[in-house]
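[audit] Reproducing an earlier prediction to check determinism. Same input, same settings, fresh worker. If the tokens differ from the archived copy the diff job will pick it up downstream; this log only records the rerun itself.
[audit] input (182 residues):
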Amino acid sequence: MAQLPSESTGRFLLNGELTIDELLLTIAEIAAAFTGFAGVVSVFGGSRLDPRVQVWRIRSMIAAGLLTTFGALTPLAISQFELPLAASWRVSAAMLGFAVFLQFAFAAHGSRPLLKRNLIASKRFEWFLAGVSASACVALGLLSLGFFGESIQAIYSLGLLYLLALSAHHFFLLVLAAQPRK
């Protein structure tokens, strides 16, 4: 199993028990599970929603789950190149920031027609998510430029937890809209 060592102790421990590599793998597994279950719900469950909204929600769920998985596995993959610790986290933050920006741009483009037709009920919440996504892009950009120093692992992990919460949000929207087939 790949490990991201800290420069002082050899392993970064969270609460003395959970290493950062274990946390990243756990986040990746949960995001993949959300994505898989969302696929099952959309295949076997019907929906009370407009089909365009349902397709948009499925795409959003898959994108959020894949983005979270990508973000969780990127530091582990980059650590295999044996870069200095700070550099590997900066590269991971830059890659994830770019991926979040692309996902944000595609989601905004895809949701625009739905917002215009009032097919998505909560415009304010969608704007809130857009603002948080834009803030995540800025924070990841600052991380990749070397700001935040020693806190880079914690801030990166918080960004991943936000993406995981976004995956959970899309998953629960799909589950709540599903109705059993007759």
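[audit] rerun output stored. Observation attached for the diff report: DSSP finds five helices and four strands in the chain.
[audit] end
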